[in-house]
User: What shape does this take?
Amino acid sequence: MDIETDYLVVGAGASGLAFADSIMAEADVDVVLVDRRSHPAGHWRDVYPFVRLHSPSAYYGVNSMPLGQDRLIESGRNKGFYEQASGDEICAYFEGVAEHLTSTGRARFLPAHDHLGGKGNEHQVRDLRSGDVHTVRVRRRVVDAAYLETSVPATHQPSFTVTPEVSFVPVNALPEVADSYQRFTVIGSGKTSVDACLWLLDHGVAADRIRWIRPRDMWFNDRAHLQPLDQVAKTMEGISRDAEAAAEASDLTDRFERLEASGRLMRIDPGVWPTMFRATMLSQPELEDLRQIEDVVRLGRVRSIDADRLVLDDGEVPTGSDVLHVDCSAIGLRASKAVPIFGDDRIVLQQVRYGSPSFNAALLGFIESRDASDEDKNRLSPPDPHPSSIEDWGPMMRLTWLAQLAWSQDPDVDSWVGSSRLNLMRALPEHLDEPLMQDALTRYLTHVGPAIERLSVRK
Ligand SMILES: Cc1cc2nc3c(=O)[nH]c(=O)nc-3n(C[C@H](O)[C@H](O)[C@H](O)COP(=O)(O)OP(=O)(O)OC[C@H]3O[C@@H](n4cnc5c(N)ncnc54)[C@H](O)[C@@H]3O)c2cc1C
Assistant: This one.
């Protein structure tokens, strides 16, 4: 079977679908989406059963279809914030998106197909069920929506060895097996490990039965500053604090101290200086509960789990057969090297505005649909690698601010950004008369120029 299309999108996760949805809304183009997985939604197919979006559903997904109903959460640690979809809801949503796109007759989805590569405009995909290889002729471009492919515990290979005698499971298995164990060792510093610890606390496991292996501590954004719609003024306040800290701090340490003092960033242990920043978020009540876990091991990364001990870079701790070791060590979003997004025959989807994967992919679809040179498209889309350490915060913020400045100077892009449901700030114009918004905007506009200048010389 030979296939011909305008755009071959490799990866039908959140990014590939958001790109396809957006370019199809703007231009009369034909799109073929391929994915190794048998269903759309990318890594969400392999997440742990108790996962939820960390960000509100209101600005996640694809541009043309709402996710959720913009309700406020009524109970629990995130009470009062905008709803966050569960993993199942996200999978069902993306299934609906794929159905909607294919129903137009302008998109085809090839599940369980591996993109093998290509030369010029001829690409090969293998049907993983039959083994057949098909040629896809691409009239315009291939869209690499897998460059930043997300790594999750269920499918990754841990970087350490585990002796068969110990109980070791990916976080996905926790609900099934937790009742059989007395003690738990959660391995990982990121948001997945946070979710595992909170799940254990929520299911009656006392904090002193949990050991947490945290190779690096992490800074978290306060969830209150990443809310859309009627809470957008608080979000603007958070952004103004970023600009202020970047403009005024004397060095990296001072910058993070200011961000913490202003409430923009938070750390679990006030006595330990985090070196990790991955732009994830927590609420104050989540933070308070996590602080109950006092058995935190900071001896570097795990090298092996033996029957009676855990061997780490900088030491060992005892373990035993009554301990369930919970793997939360997958990297999540990759901090891949930045490459130009718009190339000769290829588009490589990457982050442009930080913390907004859906928005970025949709924006890139919109930018591709315009009659403009690649130089112009790349000017509007500087790739901004995902952060990993505190050193990445400055370059990441600078590129985000520069990109936003470029969008604001282009009326079409500015208008698309202003109306996109995936834009966290889309409700800003309706809240301009709130005192908090006015104050935050004034502080942001005063500081963002000096902040960009300062971050240009100081990494
Ligand atoms: C637990 C968790 C929670 C998260 N929560 C949020 C959140 O709340 N808000 C937010 O904005 N972001 C969140 N993220 C970030 C998240 O990674 C993105 O939102 C998004 O889902 C990533 O989608 P993607 O399409 O870029 O990548 P993926 O989901 O990894 O999709 C890439 C796809 O490409 C396919 N593929 C790769 N190579 C090939 C090939 N050669 N041929 C065919 N197919 C191929 C893969 O099979 C995969 O399906 C979260 C991430 C994790 C891990």
Q: What stands out?
A: The CA atoms of residues 338 and 383 lie 6 Å apart. DSSP finds twelve helices and 19 strands in the chain. Residues 435-457 form the longest helix (23 residues). The first strand starts at residue 2 and ends at 10.
